[in-house]
Each structure stands twice: as C-alpha cells, then as structure tokens.
Design brief:
Layout: H1 15-44, H2 48-52, H3 54-74, H4 79-94, H5 97-104, H6 109-134, H7 142-162, H8 165-191, H9 198-224
Helix pairs in contact: 1-4, 1-5, 1-9, 3-4, 4-9, 5-6, 6-8, 6-9, 7-8, 8-9
C-alpha cells in the first residue's frame, strides 16, 4: 500500500501527518484529566458488588465501554466526538476503581500504582519515538495483533468462569505485549498517513495505554504486592 509520505522531506513528517500526530498527543494529554477524575470517583464509591459478581460486572463493563466506543466512532468528525471521547475516558477512569481499591489495600499499593503508571509512560514514549524517528512502517502487524486481541478477549472471558490465577497472570503478561505492540502500530499508522482522524487516533492509543496500565498493575500486585 502506498501511503502519502512522498511530500515529506527525509526525517520529517508531512504537514498533515504532523498535524494529526500533534493533535493526537494533545488530546491524549487532555484525556488524562477525566480519567484521573473518574478514577478518584471510582475509588471513592463502594464497588463491592463488582467483586461479588465478577462475571456480570465484567460483562456490564464491556457492554458500556463498547457502547461508548461506538458513540465516539459515530461522532468522530464533529466536536461531539471530542465530548464523547472525554466522556468515555471518564467512565474508563471510574472502571479503574475496583483494581485501584485492591491495590490501595496493599502496604505498597500507592508505589505499585506509580510504578505501573511510570512503566506505561516509559513504554509509550519509547515506542512512539521509535515509530516516529525510524519512520518504519509497522502496518504489517495489524492482522497478527487483531487475531491476538480476539484470542486474548476469549481467554479473559473464559477465565471469568474458571478463575485460574496462573492463567490470569499469563493473560496479563500477553496483554502487556499486545498493547505495547498496538502503540507502535497506531503511531506508525499516523506517521504513514493511515489514520487521519485525531479523535480515532487518540481513542486507539488511549485504549492501549489503559489496558497496558491495568495489566502492568495486576502483574506488579501479583509479584510485588505486600499484604497488610
């Protein structure tokens, strides 16, 4: 596939690609505000019912998130798309409540949350820089990542019923690899002109960061969590 990169000078992006990338990073930074507010709300309310009914609550969360994702996609070309995106990130922050509550009940929970956030940021900046500076086209990863994501979702849903700790850790480890690769893939698509809508670009990268943070935190709690 030929991407519209011919107008760019060596080592730089074309004006349109640079605009999309810049707007995506600005929107990505902005989405952190409703996410943090949502996370504060999520840790402040009683979400014990989610722990008591993990299957129902997980399916409910999945349904709500999918509905909001479709709303953002449908409104992506208007200012309402930005509003829908910010609303989505707020709800995503609220849904962080249960795992953050579990983490904060550990002696070193706050430290683990900080480490997960720092690790997520480090992975993002490293891979985004790699995709931007090298200008290598990583679009070939798309099909493999999609298949991996589908298998990951199936395994996660299956483990809701089986509740096997070792499988849960394996899923989290694989998820870290898949969503890290998705960051590389998504930034590369912007660089090569494969994604020209910054709302959708922001949504894609945000979802990778969100899942990367959650799974890193789960691994850190499993291997480094200190019980009271």
């Amino acid at each position: 596939m030929n991407y519209p990169t011919q107008t760019a000078t060596l080592g730089t992006l074309s004006g349109e690609q640079n605009k999309v990338l810049r707007n995506t990073y600005l929107m990505l930074a902005l989405t952190m505000i409703p996410t943090i507010i949502g996370a504060f709300v999520g840790t402040s309310i009683n979400l014990a019912f989610m722990a008591q009914s993990p299957i129902i609550s997980s399916l409910l969360m999945f349904g709500v998130m999918m509905g909001l994702l479709f709303a953002v996609a449908a409104l992506r070309n208007s200012v309402w798309g930005i509003a829908a995106l910010l609303g989505f990130t707020f709800v995503a922050g609220v849904f962080l409540g249960p795992i953050l509550q579990v983490a904060l009940h550990l002696k070193n929970g706050a430290q683990l949350i900080g480490m997960a956030a720092g690790g997520t940021g480090l992975i993002f900046f490293s891979l985004a820089t790699l995709a931007t500076v090298t200008r290598k086209d990583f679009s070939f990863m798309g099909k493999f990542l999609f298949i991996g994501l589908i298998l990951l979702i199936i395994a996660s849903l299956a483990n809701l019923f089986f509740q096997i700790p070792a499988l849960s850790l394996t899923i989290s480890a694989i998820a870290v690899l898949i969503f890290s690769a998705y960051i590389l893939f998504d930034v590369s698509r912007i660089v090569h002109g494969g994604e020209t809508n910054y709302v959708m670009a922001t949504l894609s990268i945000y979802m990778s960061l969100y899942n990367l943070f959650v799974n890193l935190l789960q691994l850190l709690m499993a291997f480094s969590g200190e019980r009271e």
